[in-house]
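Researcher: Can you fold this with zinc ion in place?
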Amino acid sequence: MWPLFALVLGLLVGSFLNVVVHRLPRGESLVFPPSRCPHCGRRLGPMDLVPVLSYLVLRGRCRYCGKPISPRYPLVEALTGGLFLLASLFYPPSLEALLVFAFLGLLVALAFIDLDTFELPDGLTYGLLFLGLLSAHLLSFPRPFAEALDGALLAAGALALIAGYGGLFLRRFREGRAEVPVGPHQVHMAALFGALLGPGVGMALAFLTWALSARTGRPVVLPDRITLPLLPLAWILAPYLGADLLSTLKGSFLAAGGLALAGGLYWAFKPVNEVNKEGEETDPVAIGYGDVKLLGALGAWLGLYSLLALFLGVFVGALVGLAFRQRKIPFGPYLALGGVVAFFFGETLWRAYMAWLGL
Ligand SMILES: [Zn+2]
């Protein structure tokens, strides 16, 4: 009965997620008005809204005007139903199972919103992050709290640094615009200080420059051209200075992740497109940290397996990008896919890989 219940619940949640995916980016209410046909505007009754079945019975057309309905709707419903069914095979009826359903539902919504808009709403990424941390704190599920927090910071830090180096190469080593009071510059500084002095001090120093930037109204930062090249140097030299490589790496990722997630949260509450003194729109770079926030959120649920999610996401995303020759693909759906695979099969995959290596 439990798997059947999970499947039906998933279909219904999927039907709601269609509404979320459609309305959340537009800032519309999720409950009102009730669903209408996008073509004829006729209000849809309960018989038109049975997940998957209505679509099949009506052969993909509106009952009233006969115009085609996007197959996306039954697809999202079937996908959510399938994921909930999968979860029910791993978890018995429990609070834990409900948390896994929430994890999966949020990922489905994020993936499809990113496909449509190339954006990952902060409400959903931070919702996923804080739900993971809260669950870890209260239930030690799916990971103990320390592991969840480390996972979130490490994963966000790793991807923020990858983005930092990517940006530096794309700009051909020209210095990027520094955000006031906080932006990627602080993230890169936190990584460097974190490598040299440990994550706590690294974060503290970067937060200090954030405060100074806020106070003075101008960026108080080290240039990326200094911090980013020095960072790998610090990693390489660490063993010669009596520190071990692993804790140096960890120090920089943790500190960078702390700044990236805290800075992202700051910008999430700031009105966007503020106009500065020169009259130009200041769209903060930190808003482009959607993937960083999503991977950070996955870290809270997956711990170190979030790095496996990142690897799988890059791998599948690159394959799809090559296969369809697309230049710009949203990364969120692939991260979400990697997250789901790593959540259910991460340990199995890791053990199989180790066995294959003969370890
Ligand atoms: Zn219609």
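Model: Folded with zinc ion in place. The chain has a mean pLDDT of 92.
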